[in-house]
Write the structure tokens for this entry.
Amino acid sequence: MDPAETAPPLASISLRELLMALGDSLVEVQSAPAGLDVEIRSVALLDPEDPPTTKPGELVLVIGARGRAAYPALRAAGRDGAAGVVVKLDGPGQAAALSETAAEAGVALLSLRSEARWEHVNALARAALDSAPPGQPGEAEEGDLFSLAQTTALLTSGIVSIEDVANRVLAYSRSTDSDEIDDLRRRSILGWQGPEAYLAKLREWGVFQHLRSSDEVISIDGHPELGFRRRLAVAIRSGDRHLGTIWVQEGSTPLSERSSQAMLGAARVAALHLARRRRELSADLTFTRTLLAGLLEGSTGPQPLATHLGFDATRPAAVLGFSYGTADVVAAPELTHAEVTNLVAVHIAARHRSALVTQVDPRIYVLLPHLPRGIDIDTLRGWGQEITDAARRHLGLPLRGSVGCVVSGLGDVPESRREADRILDAMLGTDVPTAVAALPDIQAEVLVSEVLTLLSIHPEIRDPRLTALVAHDNRHQSRLAQSLLTYLNSYGDVRAAAAQLHVHPNTLRYRLRRAEQLTGLDLSRPDQRLLAMLQLRLPPAP
């Protein structure tokens, strides 16, 4: 190793902080046996022709060595106390073998994107080591708090403000009716802090003492003589730390029945934003979402996320999926992805403290780690139903939800996500009588949907006679294919099918004979009827 290539001693950072700086567009975590808080003190380039030596706390960039050629560097890094090794991979098979070697050596293994340049990651890593201290809170974080306040207002039918422990207003919900706002709310917003006279009354009533000592929602009666309407309050906490308060003031309509539950969920979501009011907060959230997306897709193992958040990777877990179509958004153009995601996050956080929510367009996924052993699908379906009910009630949005299978640990989460996707795929464009489903609820619909997908992408396994029938209808503006499918779906009952098509039974009989004459189909043969029922369900070609 060339000593000139080794960075001089710099202020150390953790592997976690370095990963946040580099981002998932450059590197992925393959193994982190000592966790993500290991200290990195320098960066070094290691050429495979050089002796495999490293230094304690070093991040080693192994250039020009792939696969088995990187084993000596990994073993040397473990022997010398290096913090981590970065390599390029030729294929997924290499990741498992190298990760096993890294785990044995006790050193972190990162993989660099194949198209990335070594000099680029080297420069970024060194810059991260020499980075300036964090600055002030970013606009994105504050925007998230305002969005959360608006979501909470929708769920409670109230008027919301989020304050820190010094009673400074950090965010608040919009209100179009100024008559709904009481004097305390108005003065707090205008001054960005609660007026002292009102704060004194709240102290006198024991409100602040309750918020410091309890996680429960407290109800405060209205006092018209003081310009003070009824409101609810809940503390925002991170562990034992009191970070702030969410206040919900009652307006011209009563607060919703589930206001307390919504506020508990909102407080847990708000804690993520208030834990640290500095730029590393948004980096931490982004990093968590990156690890979560990698786990859901199966490109990242369970260990990085489990280590980052302190999860037990061996506890049961499950994935909930939610989807809404483009037409739904057009019908409610004021909605944003953030509002829908916030609604999901608030509701699920009230039910499961460790839940994580992310959006992978156009779907929203909820990871439920640390589930109690023996939890049943009915419970998870109920949680999903609460979310879809709230979306319809508060956002006017017909959200669809799916419940993936409960798996034994985080390592099997991709299996639960795939099942959730299979269910949502089947629900798309299908008349399923429920807004939230698990696989046992609609197994037939899921399997038929997947068979149709196979027919769609493999024209060679379609019956050309049925393809010709659809083409004939398109040319002549006739309805032979639709009539045949309706007849088959009606178990061969001509009168029932004719009623659905709004034609005379004799008209339908003529269409069926005509379809047989044009195509040579024999509807007395079960195999031909079965194939026709499937193939004629394919969506029309664009």
About this structure: Residues 279-297 form the longest helix (19 residues). DSSP finds 21 helices and 17 strands in the chain.
